[in-house]
Amino acid sequence: MTENTEKILPDAVDAFVLQWGNLGGEWGVNRSIGQIHAYLYLADSLRTAEEIARDLVMARSNVSNSVKELLAWNLIHRVPIRHDRREHFEAETDVWEIAARIAAGRKAREIDPALEILRACVGKADGDPQVSEVTRQRLRDMMEFTASVDRWYTQMMAVPKNKRDVLLKLGSKIASFLPLGED
Length: 183
Prior knowledge:
The structure is a single chain. This protein is mostly helical. It has seven helices and three strands, in the order H-H-E-H-H-E-E-H-H-H. Helix content is 64%, strand content 9%. The chain is elongated and about 65 Å long. The mean pLDDT is 91.
């Protein structure tokens, strides 16, 4: 592929696309996936795969694979256009929805399997006299913590968006409403 040196994206958009792609790498997804997501998130109109490839200077095959992944995460979707055979894409723009979909995907890929493994390990350890009580307790502690994170996630997803907004803005101040003593 010939390197395109012509500046296509405004500096602010280019910077966000690059950094979101780098963050994607930190979160365990391909950098291109993050860049395409950022590009579509900021786009003010529908984009085709060809436009994405051109504007981000990516191979068309890379765009196709990345788009499939973003569709699977439900972070973007296809929008049909009458009399146009090309596929057009747009990103989810509600930040809470984006966060919820990413969290749901991460939970399914990370928390759920970890909890399943921990439950199995606790079950095996409880029936094995060669496992020390310290080890059994540490396994139970890890399992209980992971189960608490799982319950917290489920509860937070059930809270209406406007209340989640308030909770987020309150941050650690919410602790002052709890009837617990100081630590």
